[in-house]
C-alpha cells in the first residue's frame, strides 16, 4: 500500500498497539494539534515522494522566526510516525524515512535557564492574597517547596468518556483527577502521591515545607504554623479549588490568573509557572 502522510497518521491514531493509544488525555490533545498541522501542510504528500532534503526544508519553515521548540516537536512526531510505520505496518518507505531522520541533526530548543527566586515567590504569594487568590498562593507554595509541577498540584480535567474513577465531575470540563487531595495527608502531615495503580509514595512531610506551612496557617486562621495538626485541615476533596467556582482550576484558567497575579507582583514577563519548581529538593 502506498501511504500518504495523512493516511499514516490515521493508521497511527487508530491502531490500538501504537504509542498514541498509551498516551494520557492531556498529551494526546497536544499531539493531535501537531498531527493536524502535519496533515494541513503535508498530509497529501506520498511518503515515497518525501526526501531527506524535504524534511530539512520543512523544519526550516517550522523554525520560522525562532520557533525552535515547535519545530522540534513536529520532527519528533514524524520520528514516531515513521518508526510506527516501519515496525507495525512493515512499510519500506517508513523504514527509509525513519533511517533518514535518525541521521539528520536538527536544532534543539534551548533549555530554560531561568528559575524563580525565593523573593519572587514571596511577592507572588503576598499579591495573590491581596487579590483574593488564596488557593493559588497555596498552589504556588506547594509547587515551590515540594518541587512539583502545576499538574501535580492542581490536577487536570479529561472528558467524561475517559476510563478514570473520580468523585469530581464538572458539567462543562469533565472528570478531574491527578491533583493533590486532602486525603493524601496522613496524621503526621506526610503527603503521599499515588500512581495509576493507586500505590502510595511518600512525597514529603509538610513540616519540612516552610512556605506550605505558612499558607496552611492562613487557611486555618492560625498564627503559628508549628501548631497545625491534621484535625485543623479538611479530610476530603481537592486541595486547590478555584476561589470563584469551588471546583478545581482548569489548566488554562490557572495559567491565566497566575499571569495576572505575576504581573501585579511585578515579576518578569519571561517567568512562567513552569519556573516554579524549587531547584533543590527537600
Outline the structure in words.
- Helix content is 45%, strand content 7%.
- Helix 4 packs antiparallel against helix 5 (92-103).
- The protein is mainly α.
- A hairpin with a 3-residue loop joins strand 2 and strand 3 (174-177).
- It has 10 helices and 5 strands.
- The radius of gyration is 23 Å and the shape is elongated.
- The chain has a 3-stranded antiparallel beta sheet, with no helix packed on it. It has a two-stranded antiparallel ribbon with strand order 4-5.
From the spread of the alpha carbons, the general shape counts as: elongated
Coarse structural class = mainly alpha
Number of distinct helices: 10
Q: What radius of gyration results from the CA coordinates?
A: 23 Å
Strand content: 5-15%
Count of β-strands: 5
Overall pLDDT level: 91
- Fraction of residues in helix: 40-55%
Low-confidence stretches: none
Distance between the termini: 55 Å
**Largest sheet geometry:** 3 strands, antiparallel
Across the major sheet, the strand order is 1-3-2
> Could you spell the SSE succession in H and E letters?
HHHHHHHHEEEEEHH
Amino acid at each position: 500500500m502506498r501511504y500518504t502522510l495523512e493516511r499514516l497518521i490515521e493508521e497511527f491514531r487508530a491502531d490500538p498497539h501504537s504509542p498514541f493509544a498509551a498516551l494520557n488525555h492531556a498529551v494526546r490533545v497536544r499531539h493531535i494539534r501537531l498531527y493536524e498541522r502535519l496533515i494541513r501542510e503535508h498530509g497529501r504528500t506520498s511518503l515515497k515522494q518525501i526526501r531527506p532534503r524535504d524534511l530539512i526544508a520543512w523544519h526550516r519553515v517550522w523554525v520560522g522566526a525562532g520557533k525552535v521548540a515547535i519545530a522540534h516537536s513536529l520532527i519528533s512526531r514524524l520520528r514516531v510516525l515513521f518508526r510506527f510505520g516501519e515496525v507495525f505496518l512493515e512499510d519500506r518507505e517508513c523504514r527509509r524515512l525513519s533511517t533518514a531522520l535518525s541521521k539528520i541533526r536538527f536544532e534543539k530548543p534551548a533549555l530554560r535557564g531561568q528559575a524563580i527566586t525565593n523573593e519572587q515567590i514571596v511577592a507572588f504569594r503576598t499579591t495573590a492574597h491581596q487579590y483574593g487568590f488564596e488557593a493559588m498562593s497555596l498552589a504556588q507554595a506547594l509547587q515551590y517547596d515540594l518541587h512539583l509541577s502545576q499538574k501535580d498540584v492542581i490536577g487536570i480535567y479529561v472528558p467524561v468518556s475517559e476510563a478514570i474513577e473520580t468523585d469530581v465531575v464538572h458539567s462543562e470540563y469533565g472528570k478531574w483527577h491527578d491533583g493533590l487531595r486532602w486525603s493524601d495527608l496522613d496524621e503526621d502531615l506526610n503527603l503521599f502521591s499515588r500512581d495509576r495503580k493507586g500505590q502510595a509514595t511518600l512525597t514529603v512531610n509538610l513540616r519540612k515545607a516552610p512556605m506550605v506551612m505558612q499558607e496552611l496557617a492562613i487557611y486555618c486562621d492560625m498564627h503559628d504554623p508549628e501548631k497545625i495538626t491534621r484535625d485543623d485541615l479538611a479530610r476530603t476533596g481537592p486541595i486547590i479549588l478555584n476561589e470563584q467556582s469551588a471546583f478545581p482550576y482548569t489548566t488554562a484558567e490557572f495559567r491565566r490568573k497566575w499571569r495576572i497575579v505575576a504581573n501585579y507582583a511585578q515579576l518578569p514577563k519571561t517567568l512562567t509557572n513552569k519556573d516554579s519548581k524549587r531547584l533543590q529538593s527537600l
